[in-house]
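fyi for ur records
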Amino acid sequence: MAAARSTQQPAYVLHQWDWSETSLIVDLFTRDQGRVAAVAKGAKRPYSQLRPVLMPFQRLLVATARPKADEGADIVTLRAAEYAGQGEALPASRLFSGFYLNELLMKALARGDPHERLFDAYGEALAALARDDDEAALRAFELLLLRETGVLPELGLTTTTQQPVQPAATYQLQAEAGLVAAAGGEGLLTGAQCLALQAALDSERFEALRSGCADALPALKLQLRAVLHYHLGSPPLRTRQLMLDLRRLLDA
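which gave:
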């Protein structure tokens, strides 16, 4: 059957499943088409050219095709894949963080919905994790994910009253109410932190956003966890639960 081929495009492997004794279904995050499900035929064979390439956290160039008779098919065929750069590998101690990013993308993004800025930020987050155990990079990526999916409110205004954020006041990011003024209690963002984060988001520079997150880590971690849980729904993220279970085991 004739097939419509795509040109090569940058991509990352988010996840893969067995499809048959010799083939895989691969969940790809591509720059041009967003998330794409592709059949990698023969990828499990010992001498397959695809087998050593389809690894997580490595930037690839991929080409896919779909039958012309079924242009609306959900699953395409992976025709080719090759490494697209010499990115640093994630250390074993940070693989959980990488898989956490992958799970966020798989839960938050619909297939076929491109997010070029988020794709670039994913690569920058992986590079930051390869260099260091960088929690700020995780928080920056979470903020960008919420913004790209349309659920992050403006951080320079309170959501319900549309009042300008005051640098010396304190605020909380809530899933339903947006950014609200909050007095007292732990885990609150200062107005100065909110304004810095909004400026970094507007700049579209991942490093600026990572730096802004580094100055507000305790509050951001607590607030973003609640917002993500609300929008992603149940069950909880597997990678987060695995990390908690591992920490309990180590503490015991």
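The chain has a mean pLDDT of 89. thats all i got for now
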